[in-house]
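[SOLVED] Need 3D model of a two-part complex

Original post:
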Amino acid sequence: MKINSSLIVGLGLSLFFLSAAILSFLWTPYDIEVLDIPEKLRSPNLLHLLGTDHLGRDILSMILMGARTSIAVAMLAVGIGMGLGVPLGLWAAAQRGTWLDELIIRGNDIIFAFPSLIIAILITAVFGSSAVNAILAIGIFNVPVFARLTRGAALSIWNRDFILAARVSGKSSLLISAEHILPNIMNLMIVQGTIQFSLGILAEAALSYIGLGAQPPTASWGRMLADAQTLVSIAPHVAIAPGMAIILFVLGLNLMGDGLRDFLDPRIRVDRA
Amino acid sequence: MSLLDIENLSMSIGGTKILAGISLNVAPGEIVAITGESGAGKSMVALSTMGLLPDRARVTGRVILDGVNILTAPEATLCRQRGRVMGMVFQEPMTALNPVQTIGDQVAETIYIHKRLSKSAALDQARDMLNRVGLPEDLFPMNLYPHQLSGGQRQRVAIATAIALRPRLLIADEPTTALDVTTQALILDLLKNLTAEFGMGLLMITHDLAVVADMADRIIVMKHGSVVETGRTQTLLQDMQHPYTRALFAASAHRVRLPEISASVALLKVQNVTRTYRGPRNGLFGKRTNICAVNEVSFTIHRGERLGLVGESGCGKSTLTRALLGLEPVQSGSITFDGQPVWTDRHPNLDVRRQMQVVFQDPYGSFNPRHKVARLITEPFYLLPSQPSNDERTAKIAAALSDVGLKPTDATKYIHEFSGGQRQRIAIARALINDPALIIFDEAVSALDVSIRAQVLDLIADLCRKRPLSYLFISHDLSVVRTITDRVLVMQHGKIVEEGPTEDVLTTPRHSYTQRLIAAAPQLPYMRGTSHAQ
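Solution:
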């Protein structure tokens, strides 16, 4: 089986940031909750590999801790999206053509119709800014994405003869969905999950940037960017480090999603071979 | 001087030999048919003639068309040649046309590209071509879209596109395989007339020997990438040299002998069943038009009886099948199995469903690709009130697989490890595992090659001898229905128009539709040296 280069690069980048997040549990070069004002805004040097910020905190340590926040938020948000969206999509497909299907799909359309960031701002404004609320806000907007995708893919499987054979064998639509439909659309879900994961990272960064995500002292790439905003001209490295972290991680995840799709979907794989 | 000369054409893709030393020629005005079973390399011959080979194909030999060697000609030359010198018609009329382009534009496009005419001049010529292929102006204006046409009409548009520039060679790859018999007859007629009128060569590829015998001036029989026999149609039919050719024709005319039955007890009773679907609304608040798929249908299947159901696509066969299986409720009428209804207040009756199983047409779509054979064929166990124990289960799987001529060890394999014919056997094993009283064969042999089809028919006849099997055999192929059923129903537009013992109905049809069906079906000529009785 041929593994394509985008999968390798994407997997490498994603694993790099994942290990950074895991590393932060065990060790960081400095404690990011300790301020060292005299050491503020140092350029990258041997003591501080990525320099220090305006409060003298070590940026490398903050990037490591920030990776943890990003991944936790994105993972839980994708989990919420998949956990609710996939069953909803399967249910809608099983009830295709009925009012229930219509209700589920139109409900999803309504959620789709709202700009996600605005609603996220509303949620955090009402319930307060915290990582948990950010997770909820991003997660809710993942639900219709997965629901729609699942329904569309499931509908095409429902038309296959082996589903008819299963129905002739008296299986309920719930059982058919679990046993026949889900395994056949799983690769699609994995790919979409990777892409939603990267969008989740971006969304977390965006919410933190406007101050509605994780609150200090929890490290977050988005808030690091916001803090660095006014200092870009005198200390560009303060903005470059979190910016690059976001770019590389999202790029890695998107490449991995692309590569996974080629890898898991034989039809596309043959076409490109 | 022949128009197309293929000399010693060999091809391999990724180390696999596809074609081995093919030589053939087509003269102007001649119809040459290439026939053979799937995987023989028929389509590859057509594609090499068009210069449309897959990128990784390694080719040797020469394909001389109108003085140009297609295999070595640069792409620019080929682009000029395609359409002007050679045109091609594909199997699937549903996908061969661009759904968002009007039929006029599609036909005009070829003319426009090659002749550099003005748009209106190209459209005028396109109109002529559409008239010529039997789509007259008053009924089929140029601004129709493909979805507004039937399969046969679409194939006519595809033919008009292919012959728009009056090419010297027309290649038709299974042009009528996806069409109903009555439509098939019309399209074949059209191709024949066009060949004579334009003096073009027709290279036709088909697996259907009856069509070949009917159409071709010369026949080329292929097997595993080489030509096994070639000759003028009359000569070849009367004196087949190669055993494969003889086997192929024998398999096409294959007859099985069913054991005698004394069917008297009614098993499945269908009374005045009607099923309508809600059609689309005309506009947002417009009225719905209802589509009546099955209209007041009544018939009975007796215990031990083999009943056939014949009809063209859209006649309501599939809807009726789903109703019989209790997959969908009907609006009116009743379906009872052994006296019990198949559908009791909003739920299918599981006692009845246990007694019925089905075998589908497509051996590739009938199985979940992610399960092993043992799990696939035991799916109907779900219907049993108590699940069999592990030992009993293994024994039943082994028995079912042996019954259909497979090995018990095949149970641990995945479905992609089997060929189409083997898959159809597995489908039959799945249908038999609960020992149902009635099996519905829904076009169960239509997608199979003739030799495989003959084997599956033998298997069904064999099973009939071993156990009292009743089935409903749905097919569009009259020759198959003739041999595998005792009684036949002919269905048209949701109604049963004729019913009676198979042999009587097919020899002396009373209803005009049945007569049309039988007249349209291409017939294999009587052949010497092939036994009809087994």
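Edit: The interface with chain B takes residues 160-162, 164-171, 180, 183-184 of chain A (CB under 8 Å).
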